[in-house]
Amino acid sequence: MKGISKKTLQDLEFYTVLEQVAHHASTDIGSAKILHTKPFTDEESLKAHLSQVNEYLASFDNDNRIPDHGFQAIDKQLKLLGVENTFLEIQGYRDIASLSETVNVLVKFLKKFKEYYPTLFLRSDTIETTTEVINAVNRIIDRFGEVRDNASGELFSIRNQINKVRAKIGSSFNSALSRYHQADYLDEIRESVIDSHRVLAVKAMHRKKVKGAIMGSSKTGSIVFVEPDATLQLSRELNNLEYEEKEEVVRILKQLTDLIRPYTPWLADYQEFLGDVDVYASKALYAKQLNAVLPKISKERNYNVRDAYHPLLYLTNLEEGKPTYPQSMALGHENRIIVISGPNAGGKSITLKTIGLLQVMLQSGMLIPVHERSEACLFDKILTDIGDNQSIENHLSTYSYRLKNMNQFLKKVNRNTLFLIDEFGTGSDPELGGALAEAFLEHFYNEEAFGVITTHYANLKLLANEMPHMSNANMQFDNRTLEPVFKLVMGEAGSSFTFEVAQKNGIPYSLINKAKKKIERGKVRFDATIAKLQKQRSQMEKTSRSLKEEETKAREEQQQLNHLNQRLKDKLSNYQELYDHNQRMIVLGNRVNDVAERYFIDNKKRPLISALLKLVETENSKRKKTTVKESKERKQKKHKVEQEVAQKITVVRKEKRAHKKKEAAKPKPRPVFKVGDRVRLRDGRAVGSIDQIEKEKAIVNYGLFTTNVSLGQLELVESKK
């Protein structure tokens, strides 16, 4: 593979992607490496890098997550290590030790889990590790960033003396403080600190009465700060000891530096290795954000991406809560060049940029947001002509610039090239520009290059239709609303919908009709035919989707019916088994009852036992031998069915009782009473006959007496014949 030009990377907004990836870096070195990323020129190195990023991505979802690789850059320390008789700052040694420890942990981890991370292990296996640097630093410097007292015998002795002198200074100062305070020579604040020395706050009027060195005074002059004579000599001794301590610390650090210096190349390798790991991790995090994968890398020239997303557009829409429409495209020996046509704002340019940007990302060692079964190939060169490239500094028009760019295409294009051209042929007279664009396209075709172009020119659509290894494609539009669907459809040219879009935007029909008359009739018919084909295709796709949905729905309903039917069959079978069992138990019970009745009559035990044994043997001959487990399962099944039946019987009985109550609660229609009918009171038993009826009341004759009763209290026993 050869390098891809800076212009191509700018056209495809590759540097914006690098900035987004760099945000995931945890180190400055990793971030710098990412921002300076260029497409690989060696295929084997690219494949190894892609595998490393893919393995790091996989680590996010398993239990063996890769350890932290964070570190502080040691560039300054490495430079100083290269200079004899120098030493580093304390923090510098700590950074070196931390770097070494991180590398040791990471290399050990990747060696342990090399089956999970084979290519990352191969990268770490080139690193030679040691604990000498870590141990040396830890022997000299403690976890608080101080040189240890026992770093040398001399330092230990000096610090002991310092502690003793400081104790003496404190004791002598406190003695002077107490004496002069009792003498009332001191101000209320009593003492202060100047240049790290404790001093007495002496009232100005008594300054000659206090022996010592004057170190300063207050702004008003009312206080004089004096270091007592008793502590002066001890302070000088302390200064000498602190100077000796500093000299000894420098000597120790130089000795430590000399010990570390031979490992300088190793430390440089450590930093380079962790910087690379940071790059892998950042690209993996970016891939996780995009749901990106590593497609199959084809050795042949097969390019087939499915559900490809433009990464920048995808992340922007994700933040704004908008949908992003994926595209699918295939290039190969039989279909090397694709001509995308259709109206403006339909997604042609973004589709073109998506293909180009994803290819550049892949060849720069990044995973890309496509379907996992996608396939890609690698190109030596990727040539782009995208956007308005009017060159002000060179005083070139857009068309002149594009012609200059096409001249470069003609020189560079070959069978290992991918070219991407937006609005091919525009910028000049449509007839002449279209003819020149057709000539360029034929040249690219003859060179067997792969490419994708977008255009409105009819002659380029016709050329794509005529050439065997070239095909048309269009961005689908809704034929009713004329709104873009943002879906690439292969195999057909797209109409620009020029007049339809103009009419939709309120242009008077008379002007549109006048414009149609001004152009060749054949072009209008050609564009109209394409538009008609697009509408038919859109309708067919809708019909196809509708049929598929109905088919899926019917299949689901059939599965539900089959499942329900099977459940009903199982339930009927279980109920039948329970019924047969109960009938058998009834027959068996009747036989036992007959035997018991005979024994009740004759009271003979021998025939009773004989009959019972015969009955048991007969029943056992019908049984099948089963295991304890099978017998237990059968009993559980039988018990479950019995419970189910009992529950259903309970429900049915409740429903019957409720129905009876409901029927009883219904008011019965009152009969029409006539004189002579035999009746009785609703709650009574005596029966009488009606002698007379007047205004909802009747006189009932019971033979011995008569009574006046409301008709609503009577029940009809027998009508008069």
General description of the model:
- By secondary structure, the protein is an alpha/beta fold.
- The protein folds into 5 domains: 6-149 and 259-292, Orthogonal Bundle (MutS, DNA mismatch repair protein, Chain A, domain 3), CATH 1.10.1420.10; 150-247; 303-497, Rossmann fold (3-Layer(aba) Sandwich), CATH 3.40.50; 559-659, no CATH class; 678-718.
- The protein is 55% helix and 14% strand.
- Strands 10-11-12-8-13-14 form a 6-stranded mixed sheet, with helices on both faces.
- Helix 6 (90-112) runs antiparallel to helix 8 (132-140) and helix 6 (90-112) crosses helix 11 (264-290).
- The radius of gyration is 50 Å and the shape is extended.
CATH C-level category of the largest domain: Alpha Beta
CATH third-tier fold name of the largest domain: Rossmann fold
* Low-pLDDT windows of residues: 390-395
Radius of gyration: 50 Å
Share of β-strand residues? 5-15%
* Total of helices: 21
General form: extended
What oligomeric arrangement do these chains adopt?
A: single chain
What is the topology, as strand order, of the major beta sheet?
10-11-12-8-13-14
What is the number of domains? 5
Main sheet attributes: strand count, strand direction, barrel closure: 6 strands, mixed
CATH architecture classification of the largest domain: 3-Layer(aba) Sandwich
Number of strands: 19
Query: What's the N-to-C terminus distance?
Result: 119 Å
Q: What is the structural class?
A: alpha/beta
